[in-house]
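User: I'm new to structure prediction. If I give you an amino acid sequence, what do you actually give back? Let's try with this one:
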Amino acid sequence: MARRTRKAGSVARFGPRYGVRIRRRMQEIEEGLKHRSDCPRCAAIAVRRSSTGVWACRRCGYVFAGGAYRPIVTTSFKRKVDETVEEPKAKAEAP
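Assistant: Good question. You get back a string of structure tokens that encode the predicted 3D arrangement of the chain. For your 95 residues, that looks like this:
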């Protein structure tokens, strides 16, 4: 008999519970946590997560802050700050 469905990796432990979208997100997060990444200092593929937002290279010992689930966050949003700040107008002195 042919196989009808296939359970997806580490999230197969949830079975049919919690919905497809949430299980896919969990799978993406867990895959990002488990695989090793490039070190920004020595370029070795040896960076692993120490704790939430803390990443460490096992080769050179470099410890740095990153995202909770990925060492380098690419979806960060930077706001443009207006460098020209309007100064309040000085009150006209009454003669």
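You can read the tokens as a compact description of the fold. Here is one thing that stands out. The beta strands are 37-38, 45-51, 54-57, 63-65.
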